[in-house]
């Protein structure tokens, strides 16, 4: 039997989880519970709650019930309550008791399901999303959130779930770090990428040497061992960016996060470092298609970041950059015609590149390497095509479209898969 008074107690005094009940759906729920107690405006308050949940949309949760999954999501992803335990591995005694107290107060709210609301009001039930495939299908960081939400939903005593929630926060991160493995820094804010353009590492065929170097260096970072900043350079379309983007999905469970930096935000990377330094997670700050004009004011600011300033780069952070050129400073036509200036510009660019510690070269595949990529991708897509016809069509593709590269191979396979479908 649902108890309205027990549910209302959660709004009367939470210690650590107070922010869980601060936003729209929770406040609409508080007003609805008040109306149940007073017997006035019950229908309108209930409809306000239903609208708030519809506007909120599905939250990552195991029940399919809008209110229950919303509440679970708010608890598991709370930025404040369990933050001290995320960095130390456990909450101090008094805080652990406060967390248990809050969770036990929140548990009666979880019992207010759609069918219960329908019984209390005689109105249609709250939103449900039966068979809904939640965010993990698009955002892999939500898989651990989903798992701990399932454990919380199944628990009879939420007060006993504090160690599990603390361990989740320690391993997966809190706040935005726990909800996203792919992030973007715009110079002001760190934003999560809900539907990342990532790549399956196994789709990157024919890059054995490059993958070995990048994975080894990344695993050293993930394990907390010394590692180097990394420059990946070479011909366009050869898989440089795709390889970096594959790392977050590969090592996200182990605490790796990929932070892409807008070109205009490079001067504010030190501010980003300040944010990342405080997190137990490991970070790759990703600079895609890196190249500077000598007169670009961003160049000087970025050079100081790579070469080092008074503030040391965080031990949990590395810079990974991709570029189509070994010298990261471009030359104007006028400079190319003047030998001393040309040499100085080249030296400047190479000097900046040398600061990355490790350099990985990506070369244009020859014909057989290109065809091996095509055949490998076709096999992974399970495309039933005669091998000889596949090779002939792949060669015609690069004559008519882009030159040989891993990107051209993927574009060809996408086109072929579409036509076969």
Q: How would you describe the overall organization of this protein?
A:
The structure is a single chain. By secondary structure, this protein is an alpha/beta fold. It has three domains: 4-178, no CATH class; 190-362, P-loop containing nucleotide triphosphate hydrolases (Rossmann fold); 367-420. The chain is built from 19 helices and seven strands. The chain has helices spanning 4-9, 24-38, 42-56, 66-76, 83-88, 93-110, 114-121, 142-154, 162-172, 176-179, 208-222, 240-251, 269-277, 297-307, 333-336, 339-354, 367-380, 387-400, 406-420; strands spanning 182-185, 190-192, 230-234, 256-261, 282-287, 317-323, 358-362. Strands 2-1-4-5-6-3-7 form a seven-stranded mixed sheet. A hairpin with a 4-residue loop joins β1 and β2 (190-192). The chain is globular, with a radius of gyration of 27 Å. The model has no long low-confidence stretch (mean pLDDT 84).
Write the layout of secondary structure elements.
Layout: H1 4-9, H2 24-38, H3 42-56, H4 66-76, H5 83-88, H6 93-110, H7 114-121, H8 142-154, H9 162-172, H10 176-179, E1 182-185, E2 190-192, H11 208-222, E3 230-234, H12 240-251, E4 256-261, H13 269-277, E5 282-287, H14 297-307, E6 317-323, H15 333-336, H16 339-354, E7 358-362, H17 367-380, H18 387-400, H19 406-420
Helix pairs in contact: 2-3, 4-8, 11-12, 17-18, 17-19
Features:
421 residues, alpha/beta, Rossmann fold, 3 domains, 7-stranded mixed β-sheet, 19 helices
How many angstroms separate the termini? 53 Å
- Structural category is alpha/beta
**Discrete helix count:** 19
- Identify the strand order in the major beta sheet: 2-1-4-5-6-3-7
Mean pLDDT: 84
Strand content: 5-15%
How many individual domains? 3
Shape category? globular
Q: Using DSSP, what is the number of strands?
A: 7
- Which residues sit in consecutive blocks of at least 5 with pLDDT less than 50? none
The arrangement of helices and strands along the chain is HHHHHHHHHHEEHEHEHEHEHHEHHH
Give the % helix. Answer: 40-55%
């Amino acid at each position: 039997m649902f108890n309205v008074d027990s549910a209302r107690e959660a709004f009367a005094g939470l210690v650590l989880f107070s922010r869980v009940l601060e936003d729209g759906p929770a406040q609409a729920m508080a007003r609805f519970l008040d109306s149940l107690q007073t017997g006035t405006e019950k229908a309108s308050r209930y409809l306000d709650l239903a609208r708030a949940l519809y506007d909120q949309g599905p939250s990552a949760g195991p029940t399919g019930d809008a209110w229950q999954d919303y509440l679970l999501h708010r608890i598991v992803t709370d930025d404040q309550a369990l933050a001290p335990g995320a960095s130390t591995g456990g909450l101090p005694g008094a805080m652990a008791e406060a967390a248990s107290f809050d969770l036990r107060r929140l548990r009666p709210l979880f019992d207010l399901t759609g069918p219960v609301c329908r019984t209390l009001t005689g109105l249609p039930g709250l939103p449900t999303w039966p068979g809904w495939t939640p965010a993990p299908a698009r955002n892999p960081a939500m898989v651990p959130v989903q798992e701990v939400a399932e454990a919380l939903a199944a628990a009879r005593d939420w007060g006993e779930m504090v160690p599990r929630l603390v361990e989740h926060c320690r391993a997966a991160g809190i706040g935005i770090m726990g909800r996203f493995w792919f992030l973007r820094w715009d110079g002001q804010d760190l934003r999560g990428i809900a539907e990342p353009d990532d790549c399956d590492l196994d789709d990157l065929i024919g890059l054995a040497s490059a993958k070995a170097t990048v994975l080894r260096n990344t695993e050293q970072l993930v394990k907390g061992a010394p590692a180097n900043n990394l420059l990946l350079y070479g011909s366009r379309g050869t898989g440089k960016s795709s390889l970096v983007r594959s790392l977050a999905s590969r090592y996200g469970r182990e605490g790796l996060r990929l932070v892409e930096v807008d070109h205009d935000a490079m001067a504010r990377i030190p501010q980003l470092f300040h944010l990342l330094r405080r997190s137990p997670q490991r970070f790759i700050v990703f600079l895609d298609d890196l190249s500077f004009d000598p007169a670009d004011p961003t160049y000087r600011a970025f050079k100081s970041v790579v070469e080092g300033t008074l503030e040391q780069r965080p031990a949990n952070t590395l810079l990974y950059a991709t570029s189509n050129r070994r010298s990261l400073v471009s030359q104007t036509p006028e400079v190319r015609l003047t030998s001393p200036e040309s040499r100085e510009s080249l030296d400047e660019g190479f000097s900046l590149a040398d600061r990355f510690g490790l350099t990985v070269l990506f070369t244009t595949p020859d014909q057989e390497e290109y065809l091996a990529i095509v055949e490998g991708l076709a096999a992974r897509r399970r495309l039933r095509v005669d091998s000889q016809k596949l090779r002939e069509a792949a060669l015609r593709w690069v004559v008519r479209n882009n030159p040989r590269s891993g990107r051209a191979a993927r574009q060809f396979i996408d086109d072929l898969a579409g036509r076969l479908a």
